[in-house]
Design a protein that fits this description.
The chain is an alpha+beta fold. The protein has a domain of about 80 residues: T-fold, CATH 1.10.3980.10. Helix content is about 30%, strand content about 25%. Strand 9 and strand 10 form a beta hairpin. The longest helix has 25 residues. It is globular. About 45% of the residues are buried.
């Protein structure tokens, strides 16, 4: 086995706990577990999947069934990677990309549900979230982490094959069909959140009510609270200075995801261009340094963090007004070179506190 897993009887204490917390607090513009909270957890499990590290943290003192449930949750994530990855030729999504332009293709019920959520969010965001935008990443060189200014003709031809309006879903038969050739689906901006939600079901089924599941350094789902507390404490880090914390959020029964371009970008004619691309224009999104979204599900949080980063604050605020159950923290450039501003929307006062408050 190539996964890293704590022994079921091995409780994190002292230096062992510090090492676990250190893994959670690596460089990122994304949410991370607060050290003073994490050091008191009993068991920590992790496994690599979907090109990132997933972590499940539970209290085995309170829930004796927690280790088996956590292992089942990680197993479920691996199963979903095998279904959703476009980098595995045998995956169901790869088969969809090969066959759905020919005619209706029946798919597994869970995948159908995920794709229907993606199409709905494409409509709600005015196309800022789009599961068919993956080819743009190749055109801009981010597919191989080598950003470059694209050829104009190639970009125009690629844009012609972008658009979730070409995805036709039939609920009665659980089928998908592409209404024009050249369409392909990439679930990179929503699949990790979907995996967190499905993993949480494994813990819910085992009646584990207090836990945290984190997907890489950008997504986290929390249930219940730390023992003796009313919530979990999650830190939000600076998108460009990963050692600097901007504030903390007190969360319970919610999912949170952050999108930002702190690590993948290149410079062109004095402009800093990141890897998050606007499917509507084909160009890198500019104006927001990071967008952190709180949502009822990790699936929506994952997708909407990308979408609202693309939309920018003004357009995102319109969606937040329509959906008051969502919360957001935007980090944008400040008036002075190198400065930043925080824009907080739809969060209760007891949920968010900026660093130094």
């Amino acid at each position: 086995m190539n996964d890293r897993l704590t022994n079921r009887r091995d409780f994190l204490q002292g230096k062992a706990a510090a090492r676990a917390v250190g893994n959670l607090l690596g460089p990122t513009p994304a949410p991370q577990l607060s050290e003073r909270r994490a050091e008191n957890f009993s068991l920590y499990f992790s496994r690599n999947a979907m090109a990132t590290e997933f972590q499940v943290i539970v209290d085995a003192e309170k829930y004796r069934q927690a280790p088996d449930a956590a292992m089942a949750a990680l197993d479920r994530i691996e199963e979903l990677e095998d279904q959703l990855s476009i980098y595995r030729a045998h995956s169901e999504v790869s088969a969809v990309n090969r066959e759905a332009a020919v005619g209706p293709k029946q798919i597994e019920a869970g995948l159908w549900e995920l794709l229907s959520i993606g199409v709905r969010l494409w409509r709600e965001t005015g196309g800022a979230f789009d599961m068919t935008s993956g080819p743009l990443t190749r055109v801009w060189g981010f597919h191989q982490r080598r950003g470059k200014w694209p050829d104009e003709i190639e970009l125009r031809e690629t844009l012609a094959n972008i658009g979730s309006d070409a995805i036709e879903l039939d609920e009665d038969d659980s089928t998908i069909q592409f209404t024009r050739p050249g369409i392909e689906i990439n679930l990179g901006a929503i699949g990790k959140g979907w995996a967190l939600d499905r993993a949480a079901e494994c813990l819910d089924d085992a009646e584990v009510e207090d836990f945290v599941i984190q997907g890489g350094k950008s997504s986290v789902l929390v249930r219940g609270a730390k023992h003796g507390q009313s919530c979990w404490t999650v830190g939000l880090m600076h998108p460009l200075i990963p050692q600097q914390r901007l504030g903390v959020l007190n969360l319970s029964d919610v999912a949170m995801a952050t999108s930002g371009c702190g690590n993948q970008y290149f410079h062109h004619q004095g402009r800093r261009l990141g890897h998050i691309l606007d499917p509507r224009t084909g160009f890198p999104s500019e104006g927001v340094l990071s967008a952190t979204i709180l949502a009822p599900t990790a699936t929506e949080a994952d997708a909407l963090a990308t979408a609202m980063y693309v939309m920018g604050v003004e357009q995102a605020e319109e969606l937040l007004q329509q959906r008051p159950e969502l919360g957001a923290v935007f980090v944008v450039p400040g008036p002075r070179s190198g400065s930043i501003e925080l824009i907080v929307r739809n969060l209760p006062d007891d949920c968010w506190s900026a660093a130094g408050e």
